[in-house]
Amino acid sequence: MSLKNSNITSKLLNPFKGDRAIWVIFTILAIISLISVYSSIGYMAASTGRAPLMVFIRHLASVLATFVVVILMSNFDYRKYSTASWFGYIITVVLLVIVLFVGQENEAGSGMSRWLKLPVIHQFQPSELAKVVMVVYLARLLARERDHLDDGRTVFIKILIPIFLVLFLIIADNMSTTLIIFFVCFAMLRLSPMKVSYWRKTILGIIGLGVIFIIIGSTTNIRMFARFGTWESRVEKWVNGDEKEYDETKVTQEDMMRMAVATGRYVGVGVGSTVQARLMTQANNDMIYCIIVEESGIAGALIVLILYIYLYIRCLKIAWSCRGDFGRMSVVGLGTLIFVQAAIHMGVSVGAFPVTGQNLPFISSGGSAYLCMGLALGVIQSVAYDVNKNTKNNEVPQQPENNLGI
Fold first, then answer.
1. Are the C-beta atoms of 295 and 273 separated by less than 8 Å?
2. pLDDT one-digit tens code per residue, 190-231
3. In degrees to the nearest 10, what's the CA dihedral of 237, 267, 373, 281?
4. In this predicted structure, what is the pLDDT of residue 238?
5. Alpha helices, DSSP H, located in 75-194
6. Which among 254, 257, 354, 370 is placed 20 to 30 Å from 387, CA to CA?
7. Helix axes 288-321, 367-393, angle to 10 degrees
8. Cα–Cα distance between 251 and 259 in angstroms, integer?
9. 385: Cβ–Cβ under 8 A, 6 or more apart, which residues?
10. Are residues 195 and 156 in contact, defined by beta-carbon separation less than 8 angstroms?
C-alpha cells in the first residue's frame, strides 16, 4: 500500500480530528442534552400540539447532525475558513436584514422579528449564525491588518465598521446577543496589537451609543425600540424580585427557575422527576440549566460548569500552541463565545443575571443554535488538528497565516 493510500485510510478510520479532550467534553454535553431535553420537553410539545417523542427525535437529529458538521469541518485546513468567513459575513448581514422585514414574530409578541422559516431546519435564527461568523471574520481582519493596526483610519473602516453593522442589525431584536458579540470582539481586539487608545475610544463610543439608545427607547414608540420595555421589565424584575409582594396567581418564569434551583439541593430530585419543567415554557431551551439543577442538584450543576471551564482551558491551550494569527484569534474568540454564553445562561438560571433568552451551548434544544455552535467547535477542532499535526511532525507552516493569499 502506498503512503498516499495509507494516509487516506488513516483519515477514514479516524474521523474525530482535533483535541481528544474536547471531543470527550462535547460527547458528554450531548448526552446530558439528550437526557435533559427528553425530561423537560413536555410543556413545549403540548403547547405546539406535537408528540413529545417526535420533538425529542427532532432534537436527536440536530445533535447527530452537529456531530457530522464538527467531523467534516475538523477535516478541512482551517485557513480556508478565512475566505469562507468573508462570504459568511455577507450572507449573515443579508439574513439579518431580511429577518427584520419577513421574520416570524418572537414569543414576547412585541412585533419584532427573530426567526426565519426554512425547510428542514424549520426555524432559523440569523443572530445565532452571526455570533460564529463575526468571530471568525474578525480573526481574518486582525490577521490581514496586523501591520496596520496602528492606523486609526484602517482600524475604524476595516475593523470597527463591520462589527458595528452587525451589532446594529441585532440590537433591536436581541440585546443579550449584541452584548455577547461585543464582549467577544472586544476581547479579541484587546489581545491584538491594536493601540490601547483605539479600543478605549471604542468602549467610550459604545457606552455613548448605549446611553442614546436607552434615552430614545424610553421616550419614543419607534418600532426598532419595541423591545425596550421587555428589557426594562426583565432588569426591574431581577433587581426588585425579592422585594415584590408574592402573588400565587402570577407565578413568573423567574419564580419557577428559583423554585427549581431551590428544590434541587445537593443531589436533586432525580432524572425525569422535575416538576417545574411541566410548567415552564422554555424549560428545554432558555432555562434548561435550572432543570439540570432541580434533577441532579448542586453535584450535577458543578459537573456541567466544570465541563465548560475545562473546554475553555483546552481552547486557550490550542490557541497558545497555534503559530498563526488567524487560527489563534479564531480559537480564542470562539472558545470565549461558548464559555461566555454558557456562563450567562447558568447565571440567569440561578438568578445571578436578568433573564436573557440565551440557550446553553450543546445542551439546550434548538436546531439552528445547536448547529451554529457546532460550526464554532468545528473550526476549533480544525485548528487543533493542525496544531497536533505540526507538533507531531515538528513542522513549521509553509506560509505565515497573515499572508493568506486572499
1. yes
2. 888 877 777 777 777 777 776 777 676 666 666 556 565 565
3. -40
4. 59
5. 80-102, 126-144, 152-154, 161-171, 175-191
6. 370
7. 30
8. 11
9. 17, 18, 74, 75
10. no
Q: Residue 47 — pLDDT band, cuts 50, 70, 90?
A: low
Closest among 178, 183, 143 to 159, alpha carbons compared: 143
DSSP 18: S
Rounded-to-5 percentages of helix, strand, coil across the chain: 70, 5, 25
Q: Give residue 231's pLDDT.
A: 58
Which pTM value belongs to this model? Answer: 0.86
AA letter at 286: D
* Max intra-chain CA distance, the chain: 77
CA 38 from chain center: how many Å? 22
Core vs surface per residue 140-155: b (16+ CB within 10 A) or e? bbbbbbbeebeeeebb
Specify whether the CB–CB gap between 253 and 261 falls below 8 A: no
Q: Which segments of 26-182 are extended strands (E)?
A: 104-105, 113-118, 122-124
- Among the listed ranges 79-93, 245-259, 374-388, which one has the minimum average pLDDT value? 245-259
**Burial category of 129 from C-beta neighbours within 10 Å (exposed 0-12, middle 13-18, buried 19 and up):** buried
Query: Rounded to an integer, what distance in angstroms lies between the CA atom of residue 360 and that of residue 29?
Result: 10
Asked if residue 25 lies in contact with residue 311, where contact means CB atoms within 8 angstroms, the answer is yes
Q: Does pLDDT of 63 surpass 90?
A: yes
